[in-house]
Amino acid sequence: MSVKGVKGAVKQPRSTLGGPLCPRPCAGPAVLCGDRSCLPLSGSQPGKEAGCGRTGPARMDPFRDTLQRLRESFSAGRTRPAEFRATQLEGLGRFLRDNQQLLQEALARDLRKSAFEADISEFLMCQTEVTLALKNLHTWMKDEPATKNLWSSTGSHHPSCTPAHAAELYLHPEGALRPGAHHHPLELPPNLTLVPLVGALAAGNCVVLKPSEISTSTEKVLAEVLPQYLDQSCFAVMLGGPEETGQLLEHKFDYIFFTGSPRVGRIVMTAAAKHLTPVTLELGGKNPCYVDDNCDPETVAFFRYLNTGQTCVAPDYVLCSPEMQERLLPALQSTIARFFGEDPRSSPNLSRIINDKHFQRLQGLLGCGRVAIGGQSDQSDRYIAPTVLVDVQETEPVMQEEIFGPILPIVNVRSLDEAIDFINRREKPLVLYAFSKSSEVVNEMLDRTSSGTFGGNDGFTYLTLPSLPLGGVGNSGMGRYHGKFSFNTFSHHRACLLSPPGLEKLNDIHYPPYPDWKQRLVRWSLGPQSCTLL
């Protein structure tokens, strides 16, 4: 289905200069970004508009007008009323409902993703986030009262005054955001773009969205169809490759949200540091999966090969004893056959690698260790069979980079202590998994390690719970999102103390001179005693 035929299409918006906007607009108060491809900070071509191929005068900034438009909308307070925020969220929900088939077809072209997998991992989770935000928007937007001490609680009985100071956290939109501006091209394009967008819209921000140029079909739908459902004075989509994205990052934003690799995350953070822009970085990494001798080994397979292993939360490698490896291999073999049949290549439930570049990278990793299961590949189809590697050394390439593919290395350890030591001497992962029938083993792994998220005897179920945040630690990122955590991420929690007028006599205690009795009184009023005086 062509996006040109989408019901409810609107005319191309006009720029502030009177001409048609570049079909790849770019900026706004907040930026949402999600790409693991290279993002240079300089060297972009001056005068070339993102994605349109038109060349203008030297030093022309293709993003300036769009950024200015979004900033003017935010400064005018357009995004702040709850009614406006709800309207935008409802529009996003309609986009998901109206265009599920269109997005599903795009995912099939990009990744050959099955309809079931797309529904569960993409549409359902996004729609759940929208529904939750709409249901709780007014509650989330309420200012949060703060505890006061005796000094801040004194008030006046003058009829024109409020009875006391008001101390609260005032929830204020961050402003011009670039949330989710790069979702990882290898995993969940709608999910990793739209879930952060829910929080940014609910928090009352203007948004610049930068989908990955590698998921070309999904990118096209997001760029051409999504803006029809949102207020384009407060929302823009920017398209382009590394050069355009690097040029966009040279602009000042109020917040940047990025999903991608640690390597590109450093580039984004360097660009943000130039303007002291706060960031959320969801970066992934090598997620360990400890399989204890006392467990059911079949659970591991599904979570590794979902989306052909192209998810940032998938188990990246298994740690187990040699004895468990002997039990685990046949269990993995039978589970793979049950999921994908004896010929996984013909299975409609096994996706393909996103492009030739990543296929070649993964094919190179097949030479590490020894192939125990799978190992077949076909570049013409971008197919790599679900694969298990054994006899893998810690120094081999497959253990030095995030795999993002259907390859599962097994590394042998002799004990739980050795597994914990192995994990702790490496970078902190986004997720850590532990499988054991012993709660003591699971709890010890939880207590003695660090990761963004922990899963005990379970894989991706936590992703279905908006009450639990997703976010990394250390090399796997900073910040968190999902549910109200997304709303908080894109809100500035502004400390606010409102004092009534007419308190000058009471305020005399603040001013010099400071005799002993005044010092004792101030120390007492600032102390931890409960306050009853208004």
Automatic annotation (TrEMBL):
Keywords: NAD, Oxidoreductase. One of its GO terms (cellular component) is cytoplasm. InterPro entries: Ald_DH/histidinol_DH (IPR016161), Ald_DH_C (IPR016163), Ald_DH_CS_CYS (IPR016160), Ald_DH_CS_GLU (IPR029510), Ald_DH_N (IPR016162), Aldehyde_DH_dom (IPR015590), Aldehyde_DH_NAD(P) (IPR012394). This is Aldehyde dehydrogenase. Belongs to the aldehyde dehydrogenase family. GO terms for molecular function: 3-chloroallyl aldehyde dehydrogenase activity; aldehyde dehydrogenase (NAD+) activity. Residues 67-492 form the Aldehyde dehydrogenase domain. SUPFAM superfamilies: ALDH-like. The active site is at E282, C312. The keyword NAD applies. GO terms for biological process: aldehyde metabolic process. The keyword Lyase does not apply. It holds the Pfam family Aldedh.
